[in-house]
Amino acid sequence: MRQITVSRNTLETQITVTLNLDGTGVSKFDTGVPFFEHMLDQVARHGLFDIEIKAIGDLHIDAHHTVEDVGITLGQAFAQAVGDKKGIRRYGHSYVPLDEALSRVVVDLSGRPCLEYNVEYTRAMIGGFDVDLFGEFFRGFINHAAISLHIDNLKGQNAHHQAETVFKALGRALRMAVELDERMAGITPSTKGTLVG
Fold this sequence. Notes:
Blueprint: E1 3-9, E2 13-20, E3 27-30, H1 34-47, E4 50-57, H2 64-82, E5 91-98, E6 101-108, E7 114-118, E8 125-126, E9 129-130, H3 132-145, E10 148-155, H4 159-178
Parallel strand pairs: 3-4, 7-10
Antiparallel strand pairs: 1-2, 2-4, 5-6, 6-10, 8-9
Helix pairs in contact: 1-4, 2-3
């Protein structure tokens, strides 16, 4: 079973993430940041990951530390759950539309953190959520999952739709990358023989 529970406690946040890469898309979130939870739910449902996140953060200041630290902790959980990466596909990609919006996400479970994030939101706030925080989430996630992640919003006029296509595509791309490939059973998908660092 590729599942793990990871906790991270700082003076700013206390976070616990439980992740099952071979789940059915069940999610349970308690972060105090509703729109962020709506986006995380897209990753779970479209990635067929079971994800449970409990976060207590300094929301009286703003959501920055909570969102960033959820990214860090989810990245740690992802790295541990995927293990030595033998037999996985390694690469994943997805294009996802939602009405007028279209996003592309491409991922490489390379062992090297790299983020290319190209989304120009049509407004700065979605409800009460500051869209700048998505970048903080993705940076925290890739740095601790040790993956290369390319995110491009190709078109969109509605910021909610832009964000939702990104997170749906992220779930589907990660799902493809972590899938076990019968032809690669027991083999690390790299000419170097390792996908660590």
